[in-house]
Write a sequence for this structure.
């Protein structure tokens, strides 16, 4: 592809992207292809000779796009969003065109220094104290793994990387049953082992870790000869928004010399609104915090902010400095590859810089406030419809509900049939979870371009399909 072809196809791709986003409301949210359908359309081996871009692009539109679920659809109410505000997409065009490897300051000074600045912008926006610095990770999974590795090394007096875990005391990490499965994976990858991830009982409206149970578990483990290393607290858990009492957890952890990592991957974005910060009261005393601007703030995936109180502990855990990675003759610089598990790093700071400047914090606050209000209104409307039960009250913009069948013994089967019928309908997209062992349907508002009318459509679709399924069951 020569320069002029590159120019032409870049323009055509950008035009396609604009048209795609503009037409999303006319498409079903979830792909309707069957398993194997897309794969059957793709050649069994790569071509030996070049193929025309016209053919490749046509195949993309015909064979690939129908197999995509539209995460930027305004009526995507499943999971948490993976937003991509248009200005963030424009920034990603530039990042892709430059294709810089931003692992060290010297490999792209502007990328490193912009990252430092936008992280501090976000620290201020969230109301975190000045003694937090941070790094942009690809996802909360990587941030949590990094935190668990620091927990491990601190507990073992920095000998784990050198000597391994064989012969060491069994380390223990504590969390609730509301945390994301990325915590389990971090425990696996760090070599600590799933049996040493201690699940603390939860209680109350927000399904918080019971502080007394946490303290008892730590004491029992010490008595048994185990080595408590850290606590992972949750703010806005994936299932139904489980949120721990951060201040109480940190108080217990500090008295026991444990590291505290706060996973606020989704809910952290809402903390740009001061009125929601009570959900993580005490977070300023945590050792590390993660939140994902790519979930609710509008930055294109992937973009996760990992705030750290003591970066030296993180660097001591992760940094490897062979000669070819040293920057000579410069003092006081940051090489962010020493703050992350991967060596290679994309220029993720650029899309944040574009996003925050193009929208401003107040517009982003208003967006989040709208999403919370619209979800709360939807929960209230559903609660007034006979047959609907709100299982978990809204935590910010997330709640769960259940519809009662004629035969209560088939409640799980009925609600699974309901969520499948809703998703097959195509107008909205939801997902399910389990609450206290029973199936419930999750709803969250968070897509960047959703409107109140889209949430009203969700009410209509849910009520209409529930009524239809109930009528079918009584025939």
């Amino acid at each position: 592809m020569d320069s002029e072809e590159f120019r032409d196809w870049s323009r055509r791709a950008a035009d396609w992207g604009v048209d795609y986003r503009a037409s999303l409301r006319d498409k079903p949210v979830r792909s309707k292809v069957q398993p194997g359908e897309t794969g059957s359309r793709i050649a069994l081996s790569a071509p030996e000779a070049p193929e025309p871009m016209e053919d490749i692009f046509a195949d993309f539109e015909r064979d690939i796009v129908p197999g995509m679920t539209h995460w930027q659809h305004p009526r995507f109410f499943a999971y948490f969003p993976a937003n991509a505000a248009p200005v963030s997409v424009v920034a990603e065009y530039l990042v892709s065109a430059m294709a810089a490897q931003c692992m060290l300051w010297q490999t792209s000074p502007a990328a490193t220094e912009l990252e430092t600045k936008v992280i501090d912008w976000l620290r201020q926006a969230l109301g975190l104290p000045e003694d937090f610095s941070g790094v942009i990770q690809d996802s909360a999974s990587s941030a949590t793994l990094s935190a668990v590795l620091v927990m491990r090394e601190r507990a073992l007096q920095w000998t784990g990387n050198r000597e391994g875990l064989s012969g060491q005391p069994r380390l223990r990490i504590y969390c609730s049953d509301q945390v994301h499965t990325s915590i389990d994976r971090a425990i696996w990858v760090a070599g600590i082992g799933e049996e040493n991830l201690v699940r603390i009982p939860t209680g109350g409206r927000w399904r918080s870790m019971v502080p007394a149970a946490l303290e008892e578990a730590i004491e029992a483990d010490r008595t048994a000869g185990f080595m408590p290393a850290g606590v992972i607290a949750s703010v806005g858990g994936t299932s139904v928004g489980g949120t721990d009492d951060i201040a109480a957890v940190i108080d217990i952890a500090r008295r026991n010399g444990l590291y505290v990592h706060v996973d606020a991957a989704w809910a952290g974005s809402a903390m740009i609104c001061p009125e929601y910060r009570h959900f993580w009261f005490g977070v300023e005393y945590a050792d590390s915090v993660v939140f994902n601007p790519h979930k609710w703030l509008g930055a294109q995936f992937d973009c996760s902010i990992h705030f750290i109180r003591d970066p030296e502990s993180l660097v001591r855990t992760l940094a490897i400095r062979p000669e070819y990675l040293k920057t000579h003759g410069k003092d006081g610089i940051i090489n962010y590859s020493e703050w992350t598990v991967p060596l290679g790093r994309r220029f993720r700071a650029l899309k944040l810089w574009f996003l925050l400047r193009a929208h401003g914090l107040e517009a982003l606050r208003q967006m989040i406030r709208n999403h919370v209000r619209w979800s709360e209104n939807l929960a209230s409307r559903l609660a007034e419809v006979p047959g609907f039960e709100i299982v978990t009250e809204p935590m910010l913009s997330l709640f769960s509900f259940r519809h009662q069948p004629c035969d209560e013994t088939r409640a799980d089967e009925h609600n699974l049939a309901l969520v499948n019928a809703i998703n097959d309908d195509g107008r909205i997209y939801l997902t399910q979870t389990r609450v206290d062992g029973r199936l419930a349907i999750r709803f969250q508002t968070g897509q960047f371009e959703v409107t109140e009318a889209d949430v009203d459509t969700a009410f209509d679709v849910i009520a209409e399909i529930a009524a239809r399924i109930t009528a079918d069951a009584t025939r």
Observations:
- Residues 101-346 form a domain with the Aspartate Aminotransferase; domain 2 fold (CATH 3.40.640.10).
- The longest helix spans residues 349-383.
